[in-house]
């Protein structure tokens, strides 16, 4: 017996699910195709940008134009201030008597009465128990009216003539002291706060290097000297190292010159006869001058109270012949022409103000020592 069975229709929800599944798959495939095309398009754009950049390095684009002469001068001036001597120039602070960079200081005119009044009120008057010679050393010049009884450094005053050829001056104050002064406070390292160093009398100046070794508490590790004139040029940059760790004064002073075995003068290059004699004289030991300096230190520096003189050391003397034999070496400069041209090129590389103007000193015996 054959039985006819009627097929029931499927549910409408199944049809909707199938259509939705096909739609999602189509959108996913379409999205992947769009991403692939987008990556290809981005890669092509990057390649075109790279080629455009490489071409721009070869040929100057049209939108770049040469700078004017005025802009060029301004750029060179800024470069000179940053890298040249103007950026490395030094000055002495009026308040603390320290050597600071000019760019780290403040310039004030001597006619700025408000600032002069700030200095007078914050620094105060000099103590009455100070030696008269020390007070005179740190007395303000007459051009700074209002600071007659205030301890300041005269080295911080710079004189000039105005447009009418009238004498005038300006003062240099370091940034630290200027900040304290404007805050109406006494600067920590101000001369008026007791931080001062007395200068040697004129009769005791001009000590030679061995004489300093015999009379100082700290041992100098290195000294750079610059000789003017002849075939020698000035040194623009150099390094000076010091061994400033003093031990017991009795173990350091007086110091016998024979103990300084490593002390030697090396003369490199061509020197004239006058220059050679000058260097020999720079390393003599003058007995009476050493005694006078030592007595001056004993009288005015309490650090020398426990230091006893040694007559054997103070009586030591080296003649010019002995100096040349024990302390002076002569070395040939085979590359003299090379270094001469290199120094000239270096001097002209940065056209800032420096001490190169003094390189052609007429006196070939003039020696400059920077410490």
Structural class: alpha+beta
Give the overall average pLDDT: 70
Shape: elongated
Largest sheet: 3 strands, antiparallel
Number of strands: 9
User: How many domains make up the 3D coordinates?
Assistant: 2
Strand content: 5-15%
- In helices, the fraction of residues equals 40-55%
What does this structure look like?
This protein is 40% helix and 11% strand. It has 371 residues and is α+β, with helices and mostly antiparallel strands. The protein folds into 2 domains: 85-193, no CATH class; 202-370, no CATH class. Strands 3-5-4 form a 3-stranded antiparallel beta sheet. It has a two-stranded antiparallel ribbon with strand order 1-2. Helix 7 packs parallel to helix 10 (287-300). The longest helix is centred in the N-terminal third of the chain and has 47 residues, at 12-58.
Q: Layout of SSEs?
A:
Layout: H1 12-58, H2 69-83, H3 85-88, E1 90-92, E2 99-101, E3 105-109, H4 113-123, H5 132-137, E4 157-161, E5 167-174, H6 175-182, H7 209-215, E6 224-227, H8 249-252, E7 265-268, H9 273-281, H10 287-300, H11 311-314, H12 320-326, E8 328-331, H13 336-349, E9 367-370
Helix pairs in contact: 7-10
């Amino acid at each position: 017996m054959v039985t006819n069975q009627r097929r029931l229709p499927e549910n409408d929800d199944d049809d909707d699910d199938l259509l939705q599944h096909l739609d999602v798959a189509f959108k996913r495939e379409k999205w992947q195709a769009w991403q692939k095309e987008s990556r290809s398009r981005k890669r092509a754009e990057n390649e075109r940008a790279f080629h455009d950049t490489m071409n721009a390095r070869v040929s100057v684009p049209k939108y770049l134009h040469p700078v004017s002469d005025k802009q060029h001068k301004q750029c060179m001036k800024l470069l000179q201030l940053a890298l040249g001597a103007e950026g490395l120039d030094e000055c002495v602070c009026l308040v603390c008597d320290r050597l600071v960079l000019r760019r780290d200081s403040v310039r004030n005119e001597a006619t700025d009465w408000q600032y002069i009044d700030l200095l007078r009120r914050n620094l105060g008057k000099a103590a009455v128990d100070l030696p008269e010679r020390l007070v005179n050393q740190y007395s303000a010049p007459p051009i700074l009216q209002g600071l007659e009884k205030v301890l300041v450094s005269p080295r911080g005053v710079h004189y000039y003539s105005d447009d009418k050829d009238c004498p005038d001056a300006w003062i240099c104050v370091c940034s630290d002291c200027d900040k304290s002064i404007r805050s109406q406070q006494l600067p920590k390292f101000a001369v008026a706060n007791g931080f001062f160093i007395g200068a040697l009398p004129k009769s005791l100046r001009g000590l030679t290097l061995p004489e300093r070794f015999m009379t100082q508490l700290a041992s100098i590790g290195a000294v750079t000297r610059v000789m003017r004139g002849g075939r020698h040029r000035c040194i623009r940059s150099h390094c000076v190292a010091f061994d400033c760790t003093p031990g017991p004064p009795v173990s350091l002073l007086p110091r016998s010159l024979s103990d300084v075995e490593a002390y030697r003068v090396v003369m490199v290059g061509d020197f004239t006869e006058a220059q050679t004699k000058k260097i020999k004289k720079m390393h003599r030991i003058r007995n009476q001058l050493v005694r006078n300096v030592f007595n001056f230190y004993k009288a005015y520096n309490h650090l020398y109270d426990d230091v006893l003189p040694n007559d054997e050391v103070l009586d030591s003397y080296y003649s010019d012949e002995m100096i040349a034999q024990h302390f002076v070496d002569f070395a040939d400069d085979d590359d003299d022409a090379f270094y001469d041209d290199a120094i000239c090129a270096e001097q002209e590389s940065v056209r800032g103000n420096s001490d190169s103007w003094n390189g052609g000193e007429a006196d070939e015996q003039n020696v400059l020592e920077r410490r």
